[in-house]
Structure formats: C-alpha cells, structure tokens
Amino acid sequence: MTGSELTFPVVGGIFGVGRLATMLKALVDSGQIGPWHIGHWIDFRHTAIRIQFDTPADGEIAEGFVANRHGAHVPAGSGAPDGLVAKG
To answer: The pTM is what?
Structure first.
C-alpha cells in the first residue's frame, strides 16, 4: 500500500500547526493511525501545510478526526472555523 499526502489549512501559522500536530499525535498514541510526517508549507504566509501518512487509510482517519474536532471547537461568536480542516 502506498502512502498519502493531505494538505491541511492552518490558521495561526506555527500555533495552528501545533494544534494540528497535537491532534495527530493523539491518533498515533491511541493506535488509530501509524506515523505521520510533516511536509512543507504551501505558501510563504503559512496558510496550509502538507502532511504525509504511511497509508491512505491513515490519512482518511486523520482527515475525519481533524474535521470533527474542528467542528466542535469553533470560537464562540466567530461564525467561522479555525482552519483545521483537511483537503485532499
């Protein structure tokens, strides 16, 4: 099986990617996904980052988890998500 790479939009630059890394580490620690590898920022403004997963299934699980966690943590009154939703 080949790996998979997903692009995760990030709000807050390094702080946003830190939140993303915490979520992905929780999935690894619970045995839901295998190792993941941080990729490159897609632009100089640090609005999204690529993450590589060892299997497509790991990427799908991570994508769903991040999307679900993201929906549960929308800042009150903002009407907008904080940017942690994966795009294939």
So the answer is: 0.74
